[in-house]
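[INFO] parsing input record for Carbohydrate ABC transporter permease
[DEBUG] input buffer:
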Amino acid sequence: MRRKRTTEDWILDTLITMILLIVVFITLYPFYYILLITFNSGSDTTMGGMYLWPREFTLGNYIYFIEDPKWVNAFLITILRTVVGTVLAVFFTSMVAYGLAKRDLMFRKTYFFIVVVAMNFSGGLISFYIVLKSLGLINTFGVYVIPGMLNLFFLLISISFFREIPEELGESARIDGGSELRIFAKIVLPVSMPLIATMSLFIGSGQWNSWLDSAYFVQNENLRTLTYRMMQVINQSMVPTGDAAAASMSRSQVTPFSIQATAMVVSIVPILGVYPFLQKYFVSGMMLGSVKG
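[DEBUG] output buffer:
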C-alpha cells in the first residue's frame, strides 16, 4: 500500500531537488560559459557582462583555429599520441600483468618488489631526462608514448583481474596446441573488456591532457601538443606587454583568451565522443580488484 505523502516529505523532496539543481548548475555552467565565449567576438568578450548568450555571434574563433597550422598540427599530434600511447600502454601493461598473474612464474616476488618500489619512489626529473636522452627520445615523438608503455597502477589491477580467470580455460587451449600468446589474444582479452575499456579511458585521458613532456623534452615546434599550445596562450595573456602577434590579435575579433577557450572546447569534444562507447564497461571496470570472487 502506497503511503500518503506528508508535508514534510514534500519539503524534503523540494529541498533535495533544489540542492541537486544548484550542483548541476555549478558543474555545467563553466562549460557553457566557455562555449559561449567561443561563439562571441573576442574583443566584445573582454568587455565582460556576458552570461547567457553571445552578444556578437561569430565563428571567427573556430575559423582562426582551423586556419592556423600551428593549432591544427598540435591537435593532430595530440590525437596521434593519444591513440598510439593508449594502444601501446594497454597492450604491454595487460601482457606483463598476464605473465605476473601466473603463480608458478620464476622470480615472481622479485618482479613484484620492483613494481612496488617503482610506484613509490622516483629518480626525479633530471634522472628521467638523462635516461630519455641516453635512449635518444628527446625531441622525438617517442617521448610521448614509450615512457608510458607500462602503467604500474593498472598493472596491479590487471594482475588481480587475471587471477580471477579460471585456469581451466587456458589449460584446455594448451591441450589443443595453443601458445601463450594465442591464449592471451583469443581467450584472456575477450573476457577482459571491462578492464581494457577502463584502462583505455584513463590512460587515453592522461595522454590527451599531458603537456609536461611536450614542455620539458621537446623543442621541435611541429611536435607540440594541444595542451602545450593552450598553456602558451595562458602564459602570453599573463604578460602585460606581449608580442606583436598577440597585440595584433587583441585588436581583432579574435583574442588569446577566445582562442584559448576554443582550444578547450575542441580538446573536450573527443573525450566526450569516446566516453559513451566505453560507458557500459566503465562501472564494472571501476570495481576491478576491489571485489574478490
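[INFO] The mean pLDDT is 81.
[INFO] shutting down worker
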